[in-house]
Each structure stands twice: as structure tokens, then as C-alpha cells.
Amino acid sequence: MKHKLDAVVSSPSTPQGATRGDTGKNGAHPSVEEADIVRARAKITRHYFTKIPSRILRRLSHSLAAGLSALAAALPKRKRTLSQVLEKYDQLAGEYIKSREASLAQPHEIVACLDGVPAKIGSDKYLAGFDSLIAENVFRLDPKAASYLELGVGEYTSAVGGWKRSGNSPPGRFVGMDLSWSRLQVGERYARSQGLPIELSVLGNIFQLPFLDNSFDVVYTVHCLEQSPFNTVQALREMYRVAGSYLILIEPDYELGDRIQKRRLILQDYVRDIPQAIATLGLNLRKHELCRFGSHMNCPAIYIIQKEPAHSGRMAAEFLGCPQDHGALVKAHGQWFNPRLKLVYPMIGGIACLQVENAIRASRFLDEL
Asked: pTM for the complete prediction?
């Protein structure tokens, strides 16, 4: 700044607009040097208080625009579909079991979310904590409950861990449903090897559940809704329909998550409207809190919804229903048949395939075989 000022001061030019009436210090007429100094200071002031801020603002606006463009590019262009979810997880069949067994056999340090704060913990201790959470809030919730349904059961790893930690005798009825046949196949084999008796594994989706109304005492999910952010109200309506007493959701939480988790849920396009969906349906939410144990940046909350009035689904003889009309299915020739719509749903490898697209039109099914 000094060299600019010296250059102006050395100029012999007469100050612009100066008149004989202009005065300097002590009332004296200003010298040429004093006038040049005043003009130089004014010029420098304009430079630093107008031009430089405008340049900074322009650069900031360009950076902001670039950042928004990058964020827009990172955000999902459209919500995922069930077929996309299926393709992803069907290829992973067996990996969750391997990961769980390795974490227990060879414990190692991981970063998890403990009481809402990222912290390091042994993999075996983390699984013990998460299993205990499921035991307390699912298998010990209602001492009278005898029938359980896990939706999005995957490979039965959460069911096995939670049931073992509960210390309870095997449930009278345990049914698992998933979108992936491959995961159900490897998962059922694993669950039986761990002592959890599976009455039936069902291929289905949460938007058209193949079960009768009030058919299970307890219906629950563990990281199932997170992959289906496109119609939470319909999913909860169906889950509540088939629950007899309790609907329990253990799902990533946007409202209670920290800033990092909120950002991740947006970028991954995971479900973020569970509380709003519960309110829309007017359900009786007894509990909503962040889980003590959870994945880092994907920590779930637990929602416990109590059905009013409660309907015992304890060991009803019939519990399977057609996903299209919710009417009872009958077992015939080793398959499941809807006598009203004349539809057959196949059994493949011991798994009941009860998605709408699995149905076969067979008006003479009972007559011909």
C-alpha cells in the first residue's frame, strides 16, 4: 500500500476540484502534496471496501455453486425400487453370517455408535450389546407372546442373536420373511443350526404382506425399512395389520441422529419419515429412542407400537394369506392355493413364495392333481 501512496504523493498534479477557498490544516490552503494524499487515501479505501469484497463474493458464489452441483450429482436421481434392493442383497447371500461368525471368533476393534456417540469397541462386545437390545425389546417385551414374525429377516442373524440373549425357550412360532430367496435359504439353515426353530420362511415384500390380520403376537424389523424409503405409510399399514399386539421397528433414525448420520441418510436415500408415517396412521407409539448400540453413521432408533385393542395371534392354525386379497391360503399338493382367486403360490426349497408376481393362475388346480 505504501508504494502506491508514495507514487501518488510524488505526482505534481493539482488536486481535482480544488478552489481558492479550499483550506488545509489550521485554515491554511492545502498544499498539492496534502491534496494528493487525501485523494490517494480515498482511492485505496474504495479499492479495499468495494472491489475486493465484490471479488470475494464472486469467488464464494462460484464455490457455493460448484458445491451444490457436486451435492446434486451425489444425491440419488430417483428412489430405489424393490428390484434394485433385491439385486443388491441377493448377491450378498451368506455374507452376513460369515461376518457375524468372524466377529465372534476373532474379535477386532470397530467404530460403533454407543449412546449416540462414536466410540471404539470390540466386535464381539458390540454384537453382544446389539443382541441384548433385540432380546429386551422383542423377545422379552411380552411374556405371553408365543408367535413372532421378523420382516426383512435376511439371514436370520438378528433373530438368532436376539433369541439367544433373551434366555427364553424357543418361541411357539417363528416366521421370517424376506425379499431374497437366496438369503432365506442360507439363513434358515444357519438358524436351525443355532437352535432357533423356524416354522416357515416366506418370500414376500413389506408392501403386500402374505399374512392374515392379527396373525402374530409380535411383528418386528431390524434395518428393513431403511432400504424402502418410497412408501413408509403403506409398509407400516401392512405391518400393523398383521400384528396382534406389538409392532417393533429397529431402524436408522433421522430425527435423533447426529449431523453426520443425517447427511448419510440423505445421500444414501434411506428412510427418514417413520415418525411422520406413524402419526399419519394414528398409531399408539409407546417408545421412541435412539438405541444404545448401533452402526456408526447408521445408528437405529427403536419404535414400539402397541396395538389397540390387542388381538392374540398366538398359535392360530392359519396365518398365511394371499398378498392380493388377504384371504386365507390352503395347502394342497405341497403348494399354497387361494380358492377364491384360483391362484397357486409355489413352495421352492421349503420356502413359501408368496409375492404377487409368484402367483400362477390355476382354476382347476384342486381337480387335476
From this structure: 0.78
